[in-house]
Amino acid sequence: MNKFKQLAKLGTVSALAITLSGCMGGGPIPSASTPITQQEAQQGAQYHPQFLAQFGGAMSGPQAAYVEQVGKNIAVQSGLGNARESFTVSLLNSPVNNAFAVPGGYIYSTRQLVSLMNNEAELAGVLGHEVGHVAARHSQRRQQAAQRNSILGVLGAIGSSVLLGDSGIGETLSRGFLQGSQLLTLSFSRQQELEADDLGIEYLTRAGYDPRAMGTVLASLAAQNSLDAQLQGRDNATIPEWASTHPDPASRVQTALNKAQGRGGTVTNRDTFLSRIDGMIYGDDPAQGVVEGRRFIHPDLRLTFTAPQGFYMINGTRAVTVQGQSGQAQLTLAPYNGDLDSYVRQQFRTLGGENNNLAPATLERTTINGLPAAYGLARVNNGNSQVDVAVFAYEFSNNQAFHFQAITPAGRTATFTPMFQSMRRITQAEANAVIPRRIDVVTVQRGDTVSSLSRRMAYETGQEARFRVLNALGSNESLQAGQKVKLVVKGR
Fold it and tell me: Coiled coil located at which positions (predicted)?
């Protein structure tokens, strides 16, 4: 089920968000932990299906089974009673680099994060980090804090710091724009992240893995974060896809490597790991739509649009987010009864929240590339400034509509006009041409170089930089014949 269809079926966001915790993000390390309680297990079972819906669903097949096996094996090292049976380990069909833990023994990694890893020890380290959060009951502690300070207020503050300031209306509006999957989790404290790193290193050591893997996977995350900022044209790497749920991994790399010094364990299982992830989808799954530069195309829903120059897109499970210095927008959908005018007015009411009777000052009808459309605009006081809120909706059938919701500084709504006007249906031929990217593990041959192999990466820009980050290669590192490396290629 694609992300837009999932949206209408999801339950309340706030209850789920308070319970989840994303990481890959000291205190004493317990030698044994209290077994997972029945109450914790029930709580995890309640939120698990909602969480899967938020993050693209659980993958199946040999790759998912491999991740589950490694996760359960490392969970045994936690000392939790019946750890192997008590933990549920899921590989998520998400293009975001992240891993998560839910109370009750539910741990997750996205396929994108797995594809960034370079050996089994790194996979075990990430999953062990998540097991550490469960064993230390970090989610429960953060949930208690969240009950005192609503998670939605926290998310609103994240968005308002980018554009809107911290007034009430700013927080409420931002909340509507921050419901992409990567922002629907409550961050652990820095102390809890460091404690989970410690626990992950301890579990790696007990299992015989190279404990340095925790540091090396954090280094890859930091490098990917920096590369994403560069490719998206951001000035810095402080707002990555997973920034709201992770402390900067670069600041944790050396700490993790130092703590691994002098510990036993040398197993990495690099070749096994690479053989198991060969063929894994990389980046966007066409079933959820694909971002190609500034263009978004969804072959199943048969639509496409182009973001404005200077903006970048994040393809979340529930919405496509468009971000830039002069505004932010999302494409999503809501229940539609065939009346575009009422549909637009309802989106304003949703954005305004219960305490703000937000309504469009103007509401007009038009046609965009053959699609019936309606759009509304409202100017909102936001502290000492004003912002413009726009909703632009398109009718694709009698029972299906999609809409952009956008926020800009007052008078700057025209920034998004080219994007609003670019929405169109795609042909079947265009839909058929959308081919997923996949991991292709190859053996370096004599004469192969970083430069020559990078040219096989299925991207028009940043080929060598992407290749180096994907394979954890430093800027001056070269390749050796017989070495296995990952490429990203297009293929069904």
Answer: none
Parallel/antiparallel/unpaired status of strands 99-102 and 21-23: antiparallel
Six token digits for residue 228: 């994403």
Please tell me the distance from the alpha carbon of residue 244 to that of residue 118, in angstroms, as a whole number: 25
Q: Report the C-alpha gap between 482 and 185 in whole angstroms.
A: 42
Return all residues near 126 (Cβ < 8 A) that are at least 6 apart. 24, 99, 109, 113, 117, 200, 217
List all residues 6 or more positions away from 365 whose beta carbon is below 8 Å from its beta carbon: 340, 341, 372, 373, 374
Helices 213-231/463-470 angle, 10° precision: 160
Do 231 and 126 form a contact (C-beta atoms < 8 A)? no
Rounded CA separation 53/90 (Å): 12
- Residue 22 pairs in a beta bridge with 100
Amino acid code (one letter) for 41? A
**By C-alpha distance, which of 284, 312, 291 is closest to 437?**
284
CATH 3.40.630 fits 437-490, yes or no: no
Query: Which of these, 120, 409, 438, lies nearest to 269 by C-alpha position?
Result: 120
Residues 6 or more apart whose Cβ sits within 8 Å of residue 388: 377, 378, 379, 380, 407, 408, 409, 410, 411, 412, 413
Contact 343, 162 (CB under 8 A): no
Cβ contact 342:365 at 8 Å = no
- CATH 3.40.1000.10 in the chain: give the residue spans: 286-432
Q: Where in the chain is the domain with CATH 3.10.350?
A: 437-490
Distance between CA 80 and CA 40 in Å, rounded?
13
pLDDT along the chain (492 residues), means of 10: 43 33 47 74 89 90 98 92 88 92 91 97 94 78 49 25 31 45 50 84 93 92 89 59 45 77 88 98 95 94 96 85 91 95 95 79 97 96 87 96 95 96 97 96 98 97 97 95 97 84
What are residue 442's DSSP bridge partners?
485
Structure token digits, residue 190 = 């820095």
Note the CATH architecture for domain 286-432. 3-Layer(aba) Sandwich (3.40)
Q: Are 439 and 487 in contact (CB under 8 A)?
A: yes
Instruction: Tell me how far apart the alpha carbons of residues 206 and 427 are, in angstroms, rounded to a whole number.
Output: 55
Global confidence as pTM: 0.82
Percent helix / strand / coil, the chain, rounded to 5: 45, 20, 35
Beta-bridged to residue 368, according to DSSP, are 371
